[in-house]
Predict the 3D structure of the following.
Amino acid sequence: MAGMHPQPKLIRFALPLAIALILSACAGAGPGWTYAPLGPTAAPTAAATATPAPSGPGGPGLTIEVKTTDANPLVFEPAMIEVPANTSITVNYTNDSAIPHNIDFFNGADQTSSSLAKTDIVTGPGAVKSVTFTTPAAAGDYFFWCDVHQTSMAGMLHVTQ
């Protein structure tokens, strides 16, 4: 007569222990942890302020410097840019990472608005692209992002009166 063998005690003990270890490891993911393949997102940097540029045929303008570094390849530095309303600005975007990026400014709080202006997509290091446009007449926050890394690389253009 073929008899049934009772389940070994080791398996009855090991299975619940393995489940407990897996659950405790998953619970340790804190607020700074991310699913991004390059690690946690860097803390936002201080807002950039516009610097006057030489006057041209269209009157005085402002120049803004924005960059992406090799150390933070999915971050605009700065991620908040403050400029006056209804002003011609030139944004010089420097991609110092080996990942392709651009910068695309929108006429609203998110990407569903029309684009105000954008640079070409470039791969660094040392790749610089510039775009000139007039800031919106209404004060408020206007969205910008990288067209390549839309969900992980964005910022705000804060327009003041």
